[in-house]
Design brief:
about 260 residues; alpha/beta; 8-stranded parallel β-barrel; globular
């Protein structure tokens, strides 16, 4: 790996080989998402505990101060919305030159394996990977499932993750699922967890994050599980302990409860 590519990867993935990326890119297809109506307000208290931000260029410019930021993974795909016909019909929205101007450490793109637009999204990834290699900027592929949440099983996610790696993604962001080890084993590049099943308690979030890390994920890219929590700082501190200190779910819960009490 050449120096520039390795240096940018090291900005995102810390010395212990793990990372906690904070995604706030949801508005590119959801609009003003709950608790993300004002991105700056959402980000400011939790950004110190993040290793990087996954963000669009518009929110980066408007809501993140250049002198108070983290390494940037720039969202560069889009073109659809939740009220449109098909979320899978994405294109590239941001050029690699723009990513360089914004000093991005990496770029991120969604792929929609199994959709009507599978070929388009995969060729978008391949094209972006070519440009990333040319400029030394890593590409993170996101195995998006659109509205078809039932696709979040090990067989599908292993397939999508492997294809992303084959086409040149340096990192893959995918969902946690039962039998997550199958997804990890079949993917030759690092995997970051995007989230998991809908759960009712903080402990259940800590449990699937811990399971994913134990099975070989290098970190998380969790947004709503953190900033939609009533105590986002307590939540991110608990998750960070699992990622970087090998805490177990019970220990993470204790951190959450302690921090929640201090902020109450």
């Amino acid at each position: 790996m050449e120096w520039g590519m390795a240096n940018r990867m090291a900005q995102i993935i810390k010395a212990d080989g793990h990372t906690l990326i904070m995604p706030v890119d949801h508005g590119y297809f959801q609009g003003p998402t709950k608790k993300l109506e004002q991105p700056r307000k959402t980000l400011e208290p939790i950004m110190p505990y993040s290793d990087a931000l996954f963000i669009t260029r518009g929110v980066l410019r408007s809501s993140v101060d250049p002198d108070k930021t983290k390494p940037i993974v720039l969202r560069v795909s889009g073109g659809t919305s939740v009220i449109g016909k098909d979320l899978a019909n994405e294109g590239l929205t941001t050029s690699m030159e723009e990513a360089i101007r914004l000093n991005a450490s990496a770029v991120g793109i969604s792929i929609f394996v199994g959709s009507d637009y599978e070929k388009d999204s995969l060729l978008n990834l391949a094209k972006l990977a070519d440009e990333g290699e040319r400029y030394g900027i890593p590409v993170m592929a996101v195995t998006a499932v659109g509205k078809e949440l039932e696709k979040r099983d090990a067989r599908y996610l292993a397939l999508a993750s492997r294809i992303a790696a084959e086409l040149g993604a340096r990192v893959v962001k995918t969902y946690w699922c039962e039998n997550f080890a199958k997804v990890i084993t079949g993917c030759p590049v690092p995997i970051i967890m995007a989230g998991g099943p809908k759960v009712d308690t903080e402990l259940q979030v800590f449990e699937f994050v811990y399971d994913g890390m134990q099975n070989g994920a290098i970190g998380v890219n969790l947004g709503r599980n953190i900033w939609q929590n009533p105590f986002p700082v307590a939540m991110i501190k608990g998750i960070r302990a699992i990622i970087h200190k090998n805490a177990n779910p019970k220990q993470a819960q204790e951190i959450y409860d302690s921090e929640k009490g201090q902020s109450a």
